[in-house]
Amino acid sequence: MYSNRISSQNPAHFVFLIDRSGSMLDEWCSSRMGLTLSESAAIALNEVLYDLSLNACMDANNQLKDRVHISAYAYGDDDVVWALDNLNEAEGWVKADDWMAGWSRKEEVPVSEDGGRIISRELPIWIEPHAEGSTPMCSAFRRAAKVVEAHMNKYPNSYPPIVINITDGWPTDTGVSWN
């Protein structure tokens, strides 16, 4: 039975799968910000990582707590790759001690719209947008399954892992036509 509390002894594990296929170059149609799907996904993920760092990994005294482990894999162009460029994949995840400071730079990015006015904020950048090739989503899920299993074996009392897949389409590595 898992612990109902996320802690440093029982860290949560978030696995992000990011579609980087060629179709992610399409424009995000409900936005006036002129962003591609790939750019929008990267901004959203960087916001999530920033929020997790502030709200789940810092205590009341602003001390870092290793409560959240992160895995991030990008898939496109017939490959699945580690998506946190400044961080070592090591066991398939990165502890908060490492990923929280593992961003590459801070950037002013558009995060919302209000009456046609674009609202931006400065964010640390962990995930970069990229789009090319096919959508090997099944391979990405197989990689995630291995990483989740390894994390569960190492932290058997942790909260169940959370896997988030960001995509605009169908897998191209199933041998089945989705049309």
What is shown here, in short?
This protein is 23% helix and 25% strand. It has 179 residues and is α/β, with parallel strands linked by helices.
Secondary structure elements and their pairing?
Layout (H helix, E strand, L loop, with lengths): L11 E8 L17 H20 L11 E9 L2 E4 L13 H4 L5 E10 L2 E9 L11 H18 L7 E5 L13
Parallel strand pairs: 1-2, 1-6
Antiparallel strand pairs: 2-3, 4-5
Strand order of the largest sheet: 3-2-1-6
Using DSSP, what is the number of strands?
A: 6
On the 0-100 scale, what is the average pLDDT? 90
Tally of individual helices: 3
* Percent in helix: 10-25%
Radius of gyration: 17 Å
Strand-and-helix sequence, N→C? EHEEHEEHE
- C-alpha termini separation: 42 Å
| Apparent shape | globular
Strand content: 25-35%
Instruction: Report the structural category.
Output: alpha/beta
Ranges where pLDDT stays below 50 over 5 or more residues in a row are: none
Most strands sheet: 4 strands, mixed
Can you walk through the features of this model?
- This protein is of the alpha/beta class and 179 residues long.
- Helix content is 23%, strand content 25%.
- Strand 4 and strand 5 form a beta hairpin.
- The longest helix is centred in the first third of the chain and has 20 residues.
- The protein is globular and about 40 Å long.
- 32% of the residues are buried.
- The model has no long low-confidence stretch (mean pLDDT 90).
